[in-house]
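Sequence design from tokenized structure. All designs in this work follow the same two-part layout: the structure record, then the generated sequence. An example of the structure record is given first.
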């Protein structure tokens, strides 16, 4: 056999070997780029927030050419609400959408979002939540990747009986949680803690006299069927703040171009989520009015009185943050200025 023939044979063998290696390695590389995200959600499958999360997942798959897919697990089926944040940190869930209040003590600076700051609507509160995060980049979120924050607002007191002013709340038993119980106390009422799911029956049976809830709960939890008055006092208006987070290792495993595509979608969906809260609140108000609920509009003068009653709560937050070495005063000022300048 000539040297030329031998050389050609060797070249053919090398090419064949190369093609074989490509055939073996290429699927592995392709497979390594396929990321499947398990997204744990607080809300049931029928809830509009769940549907929005599923829409986000479909857009992520399209924007990443199928390299990233998302499966949602509504209604706490992947992780209980109080364990959702930790489930993401530990990789039990790749993502979660839940309440900041369900990670008690873990996100101290961000508790500013839940204070009675005078929120006007859910669009404003959701935009503030993200502006706050971008401004302060709180280290308390360092163990996850934040997609975006949002929140239900305004939060008001709903009463089983008809009332004519906030003064009538004094002495009533009002459903609250650990994060906003001080609002109830400072109004002279008695806070009663219980799961949100128990509120309807508790009001109906007279176990409690009312609730401290965002407007959306009037329809979302059917509270509008068992209360008579919503006291629209923006002096106490608070936000139920919420997060959408991803496991940090999972985020870091994504291709840079896929991360960029998801970040772009996050900005779009923060806007959609903010608008959704307004839509849900408007529908909830219509639902309650149809059930005969009266919306008591509190005068600016009376709201000023309520604001003064809430000030010790804000002062307490600042003192607690200072003790932790956190800029609570700066965070509070930022939030109040944002609300004032973005009505």
């Amino acid at each position: 056999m000539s040297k030329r023939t031998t050389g050609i044979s060797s070249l053919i063998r090398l090419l064949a070997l190369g093609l074989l290696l490509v055939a073996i390695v290429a699927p592995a590389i392709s497979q390594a780029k396929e990321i499947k995200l398990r997204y744990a959600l607080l809300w049931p499958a029928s809830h509009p927030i769940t549907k929005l999360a599923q829409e986000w997942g479909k857009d992520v798959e399209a924007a990443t050419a199928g390299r990233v897919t998302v499966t949602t697990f509504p209604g706490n089926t992947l992780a209980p609400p109080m364990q959702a944040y930790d489930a993401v940190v530990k990789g039990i869930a790749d993502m979660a959408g839940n309440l900041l209040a369900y990670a008690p003590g873990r996100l101290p600076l961000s508790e500013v979002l839940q204070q009675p700051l005078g929120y006007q609507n859910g669009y404003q509160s959701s935009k503030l939540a993200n502006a706050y995060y971008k401004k302060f980049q709180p280290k308390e979120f360092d163990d996850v990747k934040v997609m975006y924050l949002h929140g239900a607002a305004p939060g008001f007191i709903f009463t089983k009986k008809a009332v004519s002013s906030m003064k009538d709340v004094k002495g009533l038993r009002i459903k609250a949680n650990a994060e906003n119980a001080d609002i109830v106390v400072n109004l002279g009422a008695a806070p009663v803690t219980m799961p949100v799911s128990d509120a309807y029956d508790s009001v109906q049976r007279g176990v409690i006299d009312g609730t401290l809830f965002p407007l959306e709960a009037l329809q979302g939890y059917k509270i509008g069927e068992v209360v008579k008055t919503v006291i629209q006092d923006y002096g106490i208006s608070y936000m139920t703040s919420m997060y959408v987070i991803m496991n940090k290792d999972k985020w870091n495993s994504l291709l840079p171009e896929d991360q960029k595509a998801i970040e772009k979608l996050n900005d779009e969906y923060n806007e959609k989520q903010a608008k959704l809260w307004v839509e849900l609140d408007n529908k909830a108000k219509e639902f309650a009015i149809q059930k005969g609920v009266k919306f008591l509009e509190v005068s600016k003068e009376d709201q000023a009185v309520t604001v003064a009653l809430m000030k010790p709560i804000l002062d307490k937050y600042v003192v607690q943050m200072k003790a932790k070495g956190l800029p609570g005063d700066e965070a509070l000022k930022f939030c109040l200025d944002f609300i004032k300048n973005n009505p």
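The radius of gyration is 26 Å. We note this feature because it recurs in several other targets discussed in the main text.
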